[in-house]
Amino acid sequence: MSERTVKQSGERGEQETRPQAGPGRRGTVRPIVQLGDPVLRKPCAEVTDFGPELEQLAEDMFASMYAANGCGLAANQIGVSLRVFVYDCPTEEGDHVGVVVNPRLELPDVADRVLLEEEEGCLSIKGGWARVARPSYAVVHGFDLRGEPITVEGTGYFARCLQHECDHLDGGLYIDRLPARARKSLLRSLNLQEG
Ligand SMILES: [Zn+2]
């Protein structure tokens, strides 16, 4: 997910102040796949091999996300169709940083949901922003890079980020959640189209 909204809140400083020892340090920056590439529309495969290759993939994903100034990135956004996402999402409670393998998203029951409508952007739809309504709370169950079960819980902007990245792994994009008209005008304003 793109970062504009949270960047304005100034929770994190400039790119240069990023710690040298954090995730992505050993990663290679890879190009971010853009809308129109079929890999973004294909549901990603479950990870079955929790080895050094998966660790390197996560490093590359962190490096690519930071280079693109994002706060979340799914593996298919660098062309790898596997169910993995990384995030570094600054919120008022602090910085949420991590990686989830084979995530399963859990949202509150429809009757208990509080929807928040906020601006959302995506590194794979460069320059596009739109208000998207999403539940204000989300839980993701999945695994870490060693295959240990983990649960990640988010509210507000971080909940949005978790949902955005899980959508990617199912072949979804935030523009799918826009009314037809809004989606059309957003794509037109970016000179983009999707068949
Ligand atoms: Zn995205």
Automatic annotation (TrEMBL):
Biased composition (Basic and acidic residues): 1-17
Cofactor: Fe(2+)
A molecular function GO annotation: metal ion binding
Protein name (database record): Peptide deformylase
InterPro entries with a match to the protein in the record: Peptide_deformylase, Peptide_deformylase_sf
Disordered: annotated span: 1-30
Organism field: Carbonactinospora thermoautotrophica
Annotated Fe cation binding sites: C122, H164, H168
Protein purpose: Removes the formyl group from the N-terminal Met of newly synthesized proteins. Requires at least a dipeptide for an efficient rate of reaction. N-terminal L-methionine is a prerequisite for activity but the enzyme has broad specificity at other positions.
Gene Ontology BP terms: translation
SUPFAM superfamilies listed in its UniProt record: Peptide deformylase (SSF56420)
Name of the gene this protein is made from: def
